[in-house]
Amino acid sequence: MPRSTTPYDGEFSQYFAARVHSLRSTAYLLCGDWHRAEDITQAALLRLYLAWPRLSRRDALDAYARRVVVRTFLAENRRLWRWRERLVGEHVETAVPPATAERDHEQRMLLRSALAAVPPRQRAVLVLRYWDDLSVEETAAALRCSPGTVKSQTARGLATLRQRLGPYLDALSLAGEERR
């Protein structure tokens, strides 16, 4: 039996092909696991597909899709919070590798580990603000909260990152300046 198509399928397929990687990257930064990021992205894109005929503002699709990804992540965390392991303990010990590529990889892993220690809502704010480069107002719209909430969640999330990174913070700052 052939699959029925809607007049919107081609348009959605083009949007999907153009944005799936960006949405998956955002989901990965939120959850820290590529498999889970794939699941979050698929669930978000399914919701977007189902809402597609009702979406009148095609110019705001990216903001809407990003909001669906973040809300899917937050909803999943609310459901699974009992069963997830909490990161406890000291900072991750890493040796300084000789090669720049290896050092960059370790720094990214260290940052991802520290980001995973940030509570989900604060992590969502940090990812939207610093990875997706959204303004305070755009982040507030994506999360359906006030700009003041975005500012306070940003401050708390950054404080958690600084605390988690501890002695590695200076090394990360210096490495970023070396690349400029």
UniProtKB/TrEMBL annotation:
Q: Name one Pfam family in it.
A: Sigma70_r2
Q: Where is the RNA polymerase sigma factor 70 region 4 type domain?
A: 109-161
Q: Which InterPro entries match?
A: RNA_pol_sigma-70-like (IPR039425), RNA_pol_sigma-70_dom (IPR014284), RNA_pol_sigma-E_actinobac (IPR014325), RNA_pol_sigma70_r2 (IPR007627), RNA_pol_sigma70_r4_t2 (IPR013249), RNA_pol_sigma_r2 (IPR013325), RNA_pol_sigma_r3/r4-like (IPR013324), WH-like_DNA-bd_sf (IPR036388)
Swiss-Prot/TrEMBL keywords? DNA-binding, Sigma factor, Transcription, Transcription regulation
For the keyword Ribosomal protein, the answer is no
User: Carries keyword DNA-binding?
Assistant: yes
All copies of the RNA polymerase sigma-70 region domain together span: 22-82
Which terms under GO biological process does the entry name?
A: DNA-templated transcription initiation
As one GO molecular function, the record gives: sigma factor activity
Q: What Gene3D superfamilies does the record tag this protein with?
A: 1.10.1740.10, Winged helix-like DNA-binding domain superfamily/Winged helix DNA-binding domain
Task: Kindly give the SUPFAM superfamilies that the UniProt entry links to this protein.
Answer: Sigma2 domain of RNA polymerase sigma factors, Sigma3 and sigma4 domains of RNA polymerase sigma factors
Similarity remark:
Belongs to the sigma-70 factor family. ECF subfamily.
User: Which protein, by its recorded name, is this?
Assistant: RNA polymerase sigma-70 factor (Sigma-E family)
